Structures are given as C-alpha cells and as structure tokens.
Amino acid sequence: MNAPTAPGLVALADCDNFYASCETVFRPDWRGKPLIVLGNNDGNIIARSAAAKSLGIPMGAPLHQVRAIIRERGVIVCSANFAFYGDMSRRVMEVLERYTPQLDIYSIDEAFLDLSPVATLPPIQRRAFAVEARATVARWTGIPLTMGVAPTKTLAKAAAERSKRDPALGGVCVLGETASARDDLLRALPVGEVWGIGPRRAALLTRHGITTAYDLAQADTRWVRRHLSVTGARVQLELRGIACLPLDATPERRKQLCVSRSFGRPVTTLDELSEAAALFTAHVAERCRAQRTIATRLTLFLTTNPFREWEPQHSASATIPLPSATADTLALLRAAASALRRIYRPGYSYHKLGVILGSFTPDTPRQGELFGDGALTPAAEEQREALMRTLDAINARFGRDMIRPLSAGVAQPWRMRQARRSPHYTTRWDELPETR
DNA sequence: TCTGGGGTCCTAGGACCC
DNA sequence: TCTGGGGTCCTAGGACCC
To answer: What is the reported pTM?
Structure first.
C-alpha cells in the first residue's frame, strides 16, 4: 500500500460525457447522435452526448421541460444503467493503471495519474505519453477521454477543462513550463469553474472583483483563508503550482454509505415506507460488508416533495447509535424500523427515503460488547456472519435481491420508474450484445 | 403527470470534563 | 461593576464534487 504523496507532475484523465459514451459503445448506430441519460426515476437529465449539448439541452433539467426538443430532433433517451457504467469504468481504470505507478480514482469517470516517472522528460514527450494513454483507452474500451497534465491536481483539472473547450488540442493539454502559459490559461478560466469553487464562493469572489482563476491565484492569502476557509486556501495554493492535495491510490473505504431513492409515486402509509426502508437497509448493509466494515450508527431520513410547494412539507431524520458495531442485515433492519417509527408522521405524501450507515470500524478484529444484554453469544454471532456471507454469495451469483427481507415487500408499488434502461451489456449473460 | 443519487471535508456550537 | 479557562468529542449543517 502506497502512502499518499505530493505529486510533482499529475495527469487528470476525464472521460467525455461518460454515461452517454457508455450507451454508445454497443450501439455504433447512435454515434454522433443527440442522446441523453436520465437519472433514477427517469426524472432529470444526468448526461448528454456532445450532439445533445449542442442542441442546448441543459444538464440537470427535468425531462418534462425538454419534451418538445426531444421529439423534434429525435433525441435518444436512456434510463441510467449504473451497473453497466460501473463495469465500463472499471475497464477504463484498468487501462490507465498500465500508465502510472499510482492511479487515484476520483469518481466513476475521472482519475488522477502520478506522472512523476515522466516529469523529467521534455514537454513534447510528456505530451506523447498522455496522447498514447488516451488513445489506448479509446481503442480498448471505446470510451473517449480528455487529459490535463500539470504540477497540481487543481491545475490538471483546469488544463483538462481547457482541452475540452478547445478541440484543436486533440484531447490533451499539457501545462507548459513557463509561468506565462499557466497565467494565460488561468486568465481564461472563470473563477466559478475552478475545481472547489462552487456557486456560493463564486458569487462572493465576484462581489470582491475576483472573476478569473488568475485573480484568485493572485488574491491576498489571508483574505482567502478568512472568507473561503482552509479548502479555499488550498485551491489558491494549488493554482499557484503548490501541491496541497495528495495523490492517494489506496483503495478507499468509504466513511459513510447511503442508499436513497425517490419513489415512483407519492407514498403515505407507514407500511409502504417500511418496505422501502427494509430494502434500502438490506442494500446498504450488503455494501458495508463488501468493504469489510461494521457500522456503529444508522441514520434514516424521509422527505416530502419540495417541488410540490402547495402540499404540506415534512422532512426528518433520526440517527440510531447501534449498541454494538455491526453489518448484520437483521440487526440493521431493527434499527431502521425503530428510526422510521420515530420520524414518521401520518398525513404527508412522502417522496424519498434514505438509509445511511456511518462511523465504521474494520470488521476484524471485532470489538467485544461491554454489556452483553440481549447480544448474541459468540457462537451465534459466528453463525449470523456465516448467514450473511451466504446471502451475499447467492445474491452475487443469481442477481440482486434474489434473497431479500420479506419486510421489503413483494409488489413494491413505490419502486422507481425506469422505462428505457439499456441492456446490462457487460454484466449479465442474458444481455450480452450479439452480432449478426 | 413529470424535478437524481452518492460522496467528502470543514466549521460552529453544544455537551461534557477537569 | 463582577459571571474561569481550556480541552475533547459529537453532531448538524453548509459547501462542494461528480
């Protein structure tokens, strides 16, 4: 396991329109066409192909706002298929891993590469290296990506941004040695597009006359520290070429896990909410076991639909400290049920429910329980763990929810809509692409 | 009719302790 | 008039990210 290191030279590999590109890989007839991917419940647009962007379809917009343009321009519409995207992501990352001693996977479609081995090469050769990595990913996976190469992560992000905006760069932007090249790039980057500067901070900065990344790099460091906290101060240093964000290739153990969904239709009864709570709890428990942790805290939250302003609103959450750290589905189901009883109020139309596990510790060695009231004996505990392992194995082999809590219900009328999901091309035998 | 899901880090403030 | 000082831990909420 490598400790995080301060990068001397780092590349950001950022997949282009990732979800839309995934959908196109096995449908070459869709290449170049306007295509959008909808989030769960087929609600919002969460990805757009280049052609869809150029039609002016906005990111994040609810589907019903763009119906007209979809019909008129024949836009292809897909429901999100996260199992498929996750598998394609794994393939892209495996290719990138061949090009670096340390791959820091930042999200499903982005990773930072430690390029210190090629840092001493002249810029032209560094560029050739990035160009080849990019071409190999495209050839082996079908996914196009953009590379930004620079001394810090934040500058690499800015370089990749530049590359996406300027097709003449051929998908790779290497931030040159000279300070003037860097300054030119930063002057052209609005401050709100700097990585780590969101809408709130951008508004504050603009009010103070700081409108570009260059302005932010030059601003008074004490002022930045005071108004943007340490995260903002780091952004500023990174823009100046001083690495503050380490490259971390250790496979992460999440600090919290969340499974939440909006319902396919409004839900009012405690019975239906209990079904959703049970199903989500089973899913989050499975993920907790998969990363080999046990949780000491379960939070359940519940909200009405904030867009239906004319209806009475209620949102609440309850956190249950678990008497002993666990990843046992049955123990977590009890905690979730008691949390739900605590926050449920009749008379509301609920829209979304979520279950969060947190405050993890590694699952071995197990911390013994100080006061054993009602706890399982060690032998019973071992049996329960074996049961969970069996359950996970069956679900992994025969499909998710093959075995699930009965309390999660059977008909599940509250389930989300997903009308246009593409096949699981790479993750289910019966949905493999065929050639004729 | 119809508005996503899953994360991270930081800070302020309260509870509690000596 | 005057109302310790300093520390830890925990949680909620804000801001940001993809």
So the answer is: 0.90
